[in-house]
Amino acid sequence: MSHTDAGVLGTIGGTPLVELTELAPDSPIRTFAKLETHNPGGSIKDRSALAMLRDRIADGRLVPGRSVVVESSSGNLGIGLAQVCAYHGIRFICVADPRTNEQNIAIMRAFGAEVEVVTTTDPVTGEYLPARIRRVRELVERLPHAYCPDQYGNPLNPLAHRTTMREIVEALPGGLDYLFCATSSCGTLRGCAEYVRAHRLPVTVVAVDAAGSAIFSPPSGRRLLPGHGAAVRPRLHRDGLADAVVHVDDLDCVVACRRLAIREAILAGGSSGAVLAALDRMRDQIPAGATCALIFPDRGERYLDTIYDDEWVAGHFGDVAHLWKEPEPMVGVAAC
Ligand SMILES: Cc1ncc(COP(=O)(O)O)c(C=O)c1O
User: Fold this and answer.
1) pLDDT value of residue 332
2) What separation in Å is there between the alpha carbon of 194 and the centre of ligand 1?
3) What number does CATH give the domain 7-38+161-316?
4) What is the rounded distance in angstroms from the CA atom of residue 180 to the CA atom of residue 204?
5) Residue 66 neighbours by CB distance under 10 Å
6) CA distance 206 to 184
7) Sheet (strand 68-72) strand order
8) From the CB of 297, is ligand 1 less than 6 Å away?
9) Is 188 in the pocket of ligand 1 (CB under 6 A)?
């Protein structure tokens, strides 16, 4: 292990893969969830953060007390970078936006990061992302020894996820048939898909995007939940990475997350709900006996004031609690 992976950073990766046994007990398919919340910073983006900084720290391009890392993030990557930078004593500025939840900002600050919140949306797209990226560029130009990892275009981001995929494959000696993967920078999707293709694995890769996101179709509508989806197609995107694409809206994420909490006792973030909702949408097409892996990118504690807050849910979607409180909502879907 190199110095850059020492201490708490040495615990990034190697997350558990657990079988979902309660949501659809009679289903003829087996479903496993990769719990990326078990990374020390609480999300899958710890892997990308370490991968994008590791070599630069090791070879002295990033130096404590002199260098500054600047990145745009709505939360999880920011927390991952804040953690790596804190460990190595490197200054970190995260450019966030009003959709970033307060708790994520507090976590980054606890790691010693500086957090700048852009307050105006891009005049053309009405989105915060272009404004965040513009502010990152300004900071990098202005600050000496500044470096932007650029998660949307950095090939080290997807490279980090070849390990994610390898871990899933190694944990399933009986084989894997379907992988469901949420998308934003496309780092996870691309890294996993490239591993699958390089090893000629017979795995159907399903990309799960937020409804309204710009990754696989023209953007439309406002999205409430941060994390997955993107306002601009990331440069890491390539045609053909996914065998299928499923779009999931905010309400479907909420319902799937609440079911996961109640039935599987897993408190997961919005994009984890999205991948579960995508699997449910595809259940009828998946043959009996198939094994599916779902990547759950982060933890539910970061959504206690949204997804897991009854008032917030009712305020945005109305009286929908029956959607996750029904006694056997998913049983029988694939039992025939
Ligand atoms: C909660 C959550 N889910 C999914 C993703 C998508 O991951 P990727 O950027 O690798 O496409 C992210 C990325 O930040 C995320 O924070």
Assistant:
1) 53
2) 17
3) 3.40.50.1100
4) 9
5) 10
6) 14
7) 114-117, 91-96, 68-72, 146-147
8) yes
9) yes
- For ligand 1, say whether the CB of 100 is within 6 Å of any of its atoms: no
Residues 26-57: tens digit of each pLDDT: 999 999 999 999 999 999 999 999 999 999 99
Task: Report pLDDT for 1.
Answer: 44
Burial of 29 (0-12, 13-18, 19+ CB in 10 A): middle
Assign domain 45-147 to its CATH architecture: 3-Layer(aba) Sandwich (3.40)
DSSP symbols for 52-107: HHHHHHHTTSS-TTT-EEEEE-SSHHHHHHHHHHHHHT-EEEEEE-TTS-HHHHHH
Please answer whether residues 274 and 256 qualify as being in contact, where contact means their C-beta atoms are separated by less than 8 angstroms: yes
Domain spans of the chain, in order of start:
7-38+161-316, 45-147
pLDDT of residue 228: 86
- Ligand 1 probe mutation, 34, 45, 192, most atoms within 8 A of CB: 45
Residue with tokens 């910073």: 41
Strand partners, 32: 19, 293
Same-fold call for 7-38+161-316 versus 45-147: yes
Rounded alpha-carbon distances, angstroms, from residue 36 to 1, 67, 174: 21, 29, 22
Q: How far is the CA of 184 from the centre of ligand 1 (A)?
A: 5
What angle is formed at CA 209 by the lines to CA 206 and CA 214, rounded to 5 degrees? 125
| Distance from the alpha carbon of residue 336 to the mean position of ligand 1, in angstroms | 35
Residue 126 token pair: 């009405």
- Model pLDDT, residue 326: 65
Protein residue closest via CA to atom 5 of ligand 1 = 228
Of the pLDDT bands very low, low, confident and very high (cuts 50, 70, 90), residue 128 is confident
